[in-house]
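Appendix B, Record 12. Input sequence as logged:
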Amino acid sequence: MSVPARICGYIVMCVIVGLVAAIVLAVPLSVVIFLARCGSEGGVCDFGAAWVSAKAFMFTVLPALGAIGGLVWALSEIDDEAKRERAKLEAEELARQAAERQRREDLDRRLARLAKLRSEAQSAALSLASVAADAELDLDMAERELLEGRYSPFWEAMEEGTDKLNRFDQTVALIAARRTEYADGNAKIGMNAPAFDLAISMLPDPTDTHRRLVAMYRRAQTDPHFANIYEQRRIAARLDRTNAILVAGFSSLGQAIERLGDRTEDAIRDLGAKLDCRLGSIQSSLESAAAAAAEQREALATELRRCGDRTDAVTEQLRQDVANRTEHERVSRRMLDNIQHRRTPKFGETPLS
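Logged structural output:
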């Protein structure tokens, strides 16, 4: 109902109330007037005149007061209703702003989570080439120990190389898991986040490394001395449940060597096909990883400079990513240099020391 119509309604209502009150009060008032006149005029009084006076007063004053009262009442009610409506609108606006703020914060958290998943997968992918190269250097050392007939150092180097290939396999599994989680998270937010990619065009092919590992293992097993030392170490490893090969789920070094390769090769080829990454030699993969890490580092550093002095979680993540890419570039180039110069670390040293 419009405001004028509501005001008129209140006025009419109060006028009607005033008329009813006039009708009810007219008789008592006329009696009062009659008695008052009789007393003042010595007992001679006309009741009809008193009735006319009472009606004239009651039917003019009370409706007029009712109209004024109705107007005041209407304006008061309309003002109160306007205040209630403003309060309601303000509450709705505050609730809408709070809901929008919560939605944006939730979206930011989801996007930050997706960015973290993508960054973790990219860092893991960059590390694959150096892990594979590290395994190759362990096998170089194992081959030298085999030729020189040093039994225990040979099997230690073989365990190190197998552990590197197992780490390679676990890294591939981590990338696949991050990809799946990224796809699920992207579907839940109902919008297209940046595409999941590894920011490199080439993944290392571990096939040759694994074949070399298997060949050296079988060759050593044909020598009674190497085979005897292997059995002694296998029994000791079963007693020591902290052995890395056993912790990884294999019953022995031999089982790890025989089974790890096919599983890793299938996983890396599947990952390369899904993410449109080629498979290449360790050397070419190291070059690709180093170049990708340098490019990503420059892009992240530029973004970090653009953020200025901000100290939020996004900036901290950028700083961490820059540090990670710098380290990946350093490791990849050092490993590439070791591979190119056939530089094999001494036993007990890391390939990067």
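The two ends are 86 Å apart (CA to CA).
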